[in-house]
Structures are given as structure tokens and as C-alpha cells.
Amino acid sequence: MEVEQVLHMNGGNDDMSYAKNSTIQNVILSMTRSVRQRAVMDAYKSISYPKTISMGDLGCSSGPNTMLVASDAIDAVELLHKELNLQEQLPELHILLNDLPGNDFNGLINSLEDFQKSHHCLISVVPGSFYCRLFPSQSLHFIHSSSSLHWLSQVPLELQHGENVKINKGNIYISETSPPCVLDAYAKQFQRDFSMFLKCRAEEIVKGGCMVLTLMSRSNANSSSMENCHQWELLAQALRDMASKGVVEKEKIDSFNAPYYAPSPEEVKRAIETEGSFSINSLKSFEASWDAVKEHNDMVKENECIAVKIRTTAKLMTKCIRACIESMFVSHFGEEIIDELFVRYNSLLEGYFSKNKVKLTNIVVNMKRMYP
Q1: How does residue 2 score in pLDDT terms, banded at 50, 70 and 90?
Q2: Of the ranges 81-85, 239-243, 265-269, 366-370, which one carries the lowest mean pLDDT score?
Q3: 10 Å Cβ neighbour count for 350?
Q4: What average pLDDT score do residues 346-362 get?
Q5: What pLDDT is attached to residue 358?
Q6: 80 and 44 in contact (C-beta within 8 Å)?
Q7: What is the mean pLDDT of the chain?
Q8: In the chain, how many H helices and how many E strands?
């Protein structure tokens, strides 16, 4: 599976689109807003109040969340001007929006007109993988990425060849039944990818520039615990159930491994320190709750029973997961199984949520570019 070719969020604006099913990502952006704004202010001061600020938003996708980061950056600069009573004219903001080539860039571009009417900025679109160079050397003042860096550049190298292709038999990601070498392969692939990401961004960002990254994490050190991989394990269970009825080929399940990894805070910290180009201003874990999603609360009345809340949460999460991974599953398993797969997945989520607390653990890290 060539991840760069098949991974993209569902485009458009229909009921299964990412634009309609990215509300938990909106919650995550809201929870990290103060970190981003502090980083923008810090970069602006460190670079002696430049006339133009260039900002890269990597893994921007499309839909209503896309321009929130740019809006927050504009607000942060305006706030700093007022606080310091700066006499200089407000800087021009150049926003560079990046995602993989399969992203719904047409929908994104069509949505930019209204934003530019109300905000003083220039916007460019930069297709490509953020695991390689995207921008000229020392051209960016601030870099941001949210809900993207848990996607790997590829299925772990160690699982792509020979007998290892099916060593994670019956699973599609790390599972409690995965052999230790699978866990090790995923951890190594994340370290390779994240180190390359840092190296590329280090070349593109100016001295004193800042970077804020938010990505999925895990609640404990055990990457194979059900608590940390239930989203994928329940998908695998749905696929196995379909295979038992002849709807899906077992070999198709055995040969699929998700290009995804939720690192621990320690893994992220170690990779940043090892690469050496950035100093960490802050790094923390936090939990995003479906209870903070407006659609969840609109669908659940205050006095409704726990069963209704479970069904609502499962439905929202099913649609969110589908909007993110459908393109990969269509490429590998075929389009004809998708509807049944997610009906089964929704049912399994309801059962899981009836016995377990729903947790979406994330990491947010704020760092600054260092130079000798």
C-alpha cells in the first residue's frame, strides 16, 4: 500500500465527509488554542516583529477546521500588538496549507474566499508528504500540525517483506495478540518518520521560529493494550466476522497493517532530543472527550439514559473513523464491503463503550528552532 497515494480524508460535504465528521478534531484544536497562540507570539517577538509572517499548517485536510489555526494566529499577533502598544503596522500573514495529494483541495480552495474577505492574509496550497521537504530553507516562522502525525509514511518496513507480511495475522494494527516484533516495528517506523519530519522542518524554519504539534497518543506505556488500540482492534474484529461469512478474504486481513502509530510522550520527547534541532518549551498529554462535541450534546438530552449516550457516541465515532480511513480500506478491501463493515463496527463500539470509558489521549508539544 502506497500511503501517499491512498490516504486522504473523505472529501466533499456529504454525510460521510471529513468536513461533516471532524468535530472531535475541532475539540482538540480548541483545547490547544492557547498553546498555539503563545507560540505565535513567542516567534513574532523572537524574530523582531517581521513585516511578513509565514506559517505552515501541515495535514490541513479540508472543512470547517482548516482555517481555525490561521485565524488563531492572526488573533495572537493582533493581541500582542495591543499588549505591547506596538507602533509597527500589523504584519502580513502568509499561510501555507499542506496535505497529501489526494486531499480535497478543490473544496478547500472554494472555502477560502470568505476567509480572505475578513482576514488580512495570503494563502498558498502545498500538496505533498510532510515526511519530505516542502518549503524553501529558513522561510517559515511558525509551523503547526494537528491530528496528523500519528499517520506514518508507510506500513512499518519490517512488516512489508517475506514472511513478516502476515506475521500480524488476523490483526490490522498492534493488538494484544500481536507478537513483540510487531510492536517493535511500529515503534521503529514512528521514530524514523518523526525524525525525518523534524529534520525537514528544521531546514525550513527560521532561527527562533516555533512549532506546535498535536497528535494521538496513548494512556499508558503498553501500546498493545485494548485501551490503547480499541479503535483498530474492533475494526479487525468486524473484518474477521465478515471473513467467517465469506464476505472478506482472510488473506486480505492478514496482509493489511494500518500506517498509524500513537506514541507515548516519552517517545516523542526522545525523538525531539535525539534529532537536536528544537528545544521543547512544553509537552503535555490531555484527553479529548466526546461530551465536548456539540453534535453529541445536541443528540443527547440531559435526562436521557446511559444507553442513548453510548449509542450516540458510537455513531459519531464510527462516522469520524470512516471519514478518516475509508480511502485506505476501499483501496485494500474493495468498496463493496464498506457499508457493512461500519455497521458492524458501530455495533462493536456500542458494546465496548458500555463497559469501558471512552478516552482519546493526545500530546501537544510546543518547541523552538535552535541554531548553533
Answers
A1: confident
A2: 81-85
A3: 17
A4: 89
A5: 78
A6: yes
A7: 89
A8: 12, 7
How many CB atoms sit inside 10 A of residue 105's CB? Answer: 18
Angle formed by the axes of helices 338-353 and 306-333, nearest 10°: 150
Whole-angstrom distance, CA of residue 55 vs CA of residue 74: 11
Question: Can you point out the beta strands (E) in 33-83?
Answer: 52-58
SS3 content of the chain, % helix, strand, coil (to 5): 50, 15, 35
pLDDT of residue 372: 67
Give residue 311's pLDDT. Answer: 87
Predicted TM-score (pTM) of the model is 0.92
Closest CA to 126 of 94, 147, 152, 101: 101
The predicted-structure confidence for 231-243, as pLDDT tens digits, reads as follows 899 999 999 999 9
Topology classification of domain 3-369: Rossmann fold (3.40.50)
Report how far Cα 195 is from the mean position of its chain's Cα atoms. 17
Strands 360-369 and 205-216: antiparallel
Q: Is the pLDDT of residue 1 over 90?
A: no
